[in-house]
Amino acid sequence: MTFRLALPLALATSLATPALAQEMTDAEREAFRAEVRAYLLDNPEVIMEAVGLLEAREREAQLAADRAMAANNAELLSNDGYSFVGGNPDGDITLVEFMDYRCGYCRQAFAEVEELVNRDGNIRFVLKEFPILGEQSMLASRFAIATQIVAGDDAYKDVHDSLMTITSDINLITLGRLADGLGLDVAAITETMDSDEVTNRLNDTRQLAQALQITGTPTLIMNDQMLRGYVPLATMQQIVAEMRQDG
To answer: What is the mean pLDDT of residues 42-60?
Structure first.
């Protein structure tokens, strides 16, 4: 076997046992390094293969970490006592969404998440108000939560859906018009927006997001699987099908 043909085995052995490399003379070490460089230049696909393997391992590690975080926070994710719960309350899969009303990807996902939940019929859907994109995001979330406190879940969902599709800037005037159009008590909702209850809910959700290392929206959690960023409808449906098949 020539030295060049034996190089991959020698390289793996030396990397796996650093003591072996330390036993080389300076001349042997330099020769070995030259052969490694020559081999990699002749076979650059080896580098790409190693990078691909590393990335795959990192993805697996991140998925495992996400599952552990979701499992450790399962009760707060699905039963915090205040977040809106829609879909099928007894569904076999719980879908939790952290969202921001000014997030373009949240808006893109909105119709697809709705279609997934409504078409499936056996998904429990939990909404988490997570305003991270500035003053308008915070104002919209305070308004939505205040609506839920004042007028209940159905009114909250109507407001949520409207805010997800609104095209104008979000301010107290546009929010008042929105509430009027839905037949809601604008004064009561506006008065509640800055209440401690609204602030506490937002803070609790933010702390939960930090515990889950969520920094962007939308973030979806299906049972213990975390989906960071926009996910197309077909992909979500495939994940649901695989969960049921494995479960």
So the answer is: 73
